[in-house]
Design a protein that fits this description.
The protein is of the alpha/beta class. It contains 12 helices and 15 strands. The chain has 2 domains: 141 residues, Aspartate Aminotransferase, domain 1; 238 residues, Aspartate Aminotransferase, domain 2 (3-Layer(aba) Sandwich), CATH 3.40.640. The protein has a 7-stranded mixed beta sheet, with helices on both faces. A 4-stranded antiparallel beta sheet has the order 9-10-15-12. The longest helix is centred in the middle third of the chain and has 39 residues. Bound molecules: pyridoxal-5'-phosphate (PLP). The site of pyridoxal-5'-phosphate has 13 residues, from helix 3.
Length: 399
């Protein structure tokens, strides 16, 4: 196969070889049911306990606070629905304008069913408006759900401060940490106000289809998947043993690599950003002024279509993603960039490069060699670029 430069790690990651190796026996030789009374199943139960401890160690939690789920989306659903069910007298949900659809669409769905929803805005750099958050949370708020790090821009929110605001009004605090876990250090033991946290295996080199909901000890919680006694009655269903084993191993690897990889990946990311800014006129780093994940670069190339850029990159084996989605024939910029008020002309041409432990300096060299001529060629045929030259480039904003 031709060269692949995979820089779409916020979408999903390669499963680490060590993870696959640790999972394999649990498909074949060690296929027992962990709930069985016999020793054959019992050894599987021990392995699940080890995985639970490994996940807990990565986020500074107690193993008893870790509940395995099927994905990040399920964890988000379980957190929000489970809290609303536990606090029937409180009708309010407070979240942000830039959440992943797993939270955003769920909260909008719940609002249509009668819950009161406030989506707190962000500024031009993607930073959360903390005054608006403070105003939004009231004694009627059941849950405040604020993502730890944004999947499109990598912007990191001040989660400790957000969670304290929620607790000051007696609301439960949930964070979707799907993009943060394994990329920046998290420590639940050092925090007193985070009640619920979601994570997803496939963002940190475990397979797709495994997630975790962290539930702080003492948090009121009604199970979302009701069934057997698994996960101490907090999530029914026979455990997905090989994937749980894989997630445990991935968390162990992430913990061992976190410090060194964070700095190495940040240097690669910074090289991409600096290289593109200096070689492509009219390019913008989204969220540049905010605290950000080390692996994510969201770059807007004004007056070109993101999809056209992606197609050209894809032909060269560069796998990235765009900040716009094609809906019913019209290209709508992402809700995240819209919420940030990114100029319309820039939001359309935004590309996300998201790195992982597997990216190298050579990957960055390749990107920096190939992207600038692609943008230049696309601009040559872009009517918007020509108009911008004629009009002197006044951007329209898309709030
Ligand atoms: N939350 C965030 C911030 C994400 O980036 C994603 C996946 O892209 C999810 C939730 C959903 O996770 P999963 O794909 O495991 O359902």
């Amino acid at each position: 196969m031709a060269r692949v430069v995979y820089v779409d790690n916020n979408a999903t990651t390669r499963v680490a070889d060590e993870v696959v190796a640790e999972m394999l026996p649990y498909f074949t030789e060690l296929y027992g049911n962990p709930s069985s009374m016999h020793e054959f199943g019992g050894q599987v139960e021990h392995k699940i306990a080890q995985s639970r401890a490994r996940v807990a160690a990565l986020i500074g939690a107690d193993p008893s606070e870790i509940v395995f789920t099927s994905c990040g989306t399920e964890s988000d659903n379980a957190a929000i629905r489970g809290t609303l069910e536990s606090w029937p007298d409180r009708k309010g949900i407070v979240t942000t304008r830039v959440e992943h659809p797993a939270v955003r669409n769920l909260c909008r769905h719940l609002a249509r069913q009668g819950h009161e929803l406030v989506e707190v805005p962000v500024d031009r750099d993607g930073r959360l408006d903390m005054d608006r958050l403070r105003q939004a949370v009231t004694e009627n708020t059941a849950i405040v759900s604020v993502m730890w790090a944004n999947n499109e821009t990598g912007v990191v929110f001040p989660i400790e401060e957000c969670s304290a605001i929620a607790h000051a009004k007696g609301a439960v605090f949930h964070t979707d940490a799907v993009q943060a876990v394994g990329k920046i250090p998290l420590n639940m033991a050092a925090s007193t106000n985070i009640d619920l946290l979601s994570l997803s295996g496939h963002k940190l080199h475990a397979p797709k289809g495994i997630g975790v909901l962290y539930i702080r000890k003492g948090t009121r919680f009604a199970p979302f998947v009701v069934g057997g006694h698994q996960e101490s009655g907090r999530r029914g269903g026979t455990e997905n043993v090989p994937y749980i084993v894989g997630l445990g191993k991935a968390c162990e690897l992430a913990q061992a690599n976190l410090k060194a990889e964070r700095e190495r990946v940040r240097r690669l990311r910074d090289r991409i950003e600096a290289g593109l800014l200096s070689s492509v006129p009219n390019s913008i780093i989204n969220g540049e002024g905010a605290s950000r994940l080390p692996n994510t670069a969201s770059v807007s190339f004004e007056y070109v279509e993101g999809e056209a850029i992606l197609l050209k990159l894809s032909k060269l084996g560069i796998c990235a993603s765009s900040g716009s989605a094609c809906t019913s024939g019209s290209l709508e910029p992402s809700h995240v960039l819209r919420a940030m008020g990114v100029p319309f002309t820039a939001a359309h041409g935004s590309i996300r490069f998201s790195l992982s432990v597997y990216n190298t300096e050579e990957d960055v060299d390749f990107i920096l060699a190939e992207v600038p001529p692609i943008i230049a060629r696309l601009r040559e045929i872009s009517p918007f670029w020509k108009k911008r030259t004629a009009w002197g480039g006044t951007p329209s904003y898309c709030r």
